[in-house]
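Anyone else keep sequences and structure tokens together like this?

Example one:
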Amino acid sequence: MTSTAFRYFLFPRLTVAEHELSDLLMLFPHLFFLQVIRPPAVPPWAQERVSGWSVIEAPDLLDAISQRWKGYQDFARLHGEDGIMASMARDWTARHSPETRLDIQGSLKGKGSETREVDRSVQLLESGVFMEIARDLEEKELELATDLAQAENIEGEFQKILGVESIEEIEDSMGALSPPLLPDGAAPSFMLFQRTLCWLRLFYSKRPEALPVFVTLDPEALEGILEAVEKESKRTGFSPELLQMPLFSIPSLSRVPAEHVHPWMQEMEGTGLLQACGDSLEAVLKAPGDPALREKLSERIGELQRHAAPLVKKGAMAPANELTLTLTVIQKLTHEGLARCLDGQSEEAFFARDLPDSPPVFLSLGRSKG
């Protein structure tokens, strides 16, 4: 099930936890992940509804990214994750120094490339290596979260052995417990704006096949973009308009055991309800100012919530988190305009020249405790 008018791109991450993916695929018929070298890593049940969007096609450039990325991996094995994070922070500045850029340019020019193409390749090389390293860090964070989740499950089983029916019952009899081992909705935040910039630089290097909608689990990433647009608008005098509105809320599936999620997803696909929700969301994206379309979307999401209620009860004893989907449209600004805001207004900007002539659209999936 792939939308014909829109494509939903996870932004700016390259990977997500399985429980986060459950929430995303409950709301979006199909999801695209930016792909530099490695394809998306998703569980088998989600593979038909997740695709990679490969942005680097030149074999020489892919090979250069791979070699430099492996060099960082070797460094991390010697110095640990803290060392690689410090190296990334230092090299973000160093890679933009004249000496470093000339070194990369020289190696590429040795292959006979034109100057402009060399400069463009340097940008993509830097961004590609950075995002692959960022993905390594994301995966390490997910491994840690998985270990914490397993410990939390053991804690839940222990509570059942004691005959405890709810968290509140324990708190009433023993006082407040320590905070949950697994932080709810903890997002990768290290060098988030740099990740955002590199993600968009890679994305805009190739024209998307349909209108892109950027889906984020990290509101700080969107805030960074809006701040950059505001700063550039003050510098140049143009006045983009911001449309922001919450679309709906629905309980999260994050606490539902994975073995229950896939059958439920298949059932909802069979009823046509997931597609109906996706169609209503598309209609709202095409005309966000139409209250009748927003009401129709709310009705269909309400129906989905009723179908999900028995599933959510299979989750942990703690209340389900609440998901809120918020729409943000940067009006009076095109995708090329956004690329220029983030990467400079010079004539040497290296985004694709045929980007969609439409305003950038973002959907932010926020999470709050139930």
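And example two:
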Amino acid sequence: MLRFLLILAGLIVTIVPVFAQIMEQKAQPIDRQVKDGFVVIALITKDENWKEKWLSPPSKPPEFKGAYELAIGEKAYILTFFAGAQAINGEVILYCDIKTISPSGREKQYPANLCYKNAKTPKPNYLHMVGLDIGFTRTKEDEIGLHKFEIGVEDKARQIRVPVMVSIKYADENIGK
């Protein structure tokens, strides 16, 4: 019996910090990764006017606010940018894939699709937006916790895939009520 209690105490000491760490996971609304000069940035924002901001004149650079938490009925957008892509026969071609990961660990993979094709080679030091238009609204049926999004952007000229991971928290709105 004593041995059982010691094993149980050991498990509790091991599991509690791990569980606490999982419960305290914080949202990461922005991620930036670079591979061989190919830069990919993803951002979760609640800015409803993100497109207007992005299309503003270059003299007024857009400012986007990162979204850490989403309440029921709120909408968020995932914006994905790149720099340093190379051209194939004068065209830049990018493919994007998406994987979503729920707080319970359930994954959903969306296959790679063409997300950027331009006959003009983009300026290498400028940020450009890929053609993903990801918007989502939280509903009361959504799982509470940290929702993760992995976006892979592949530069077809170099066969380089750069993954970025962003996340947002769906908090329990009944806490404190």
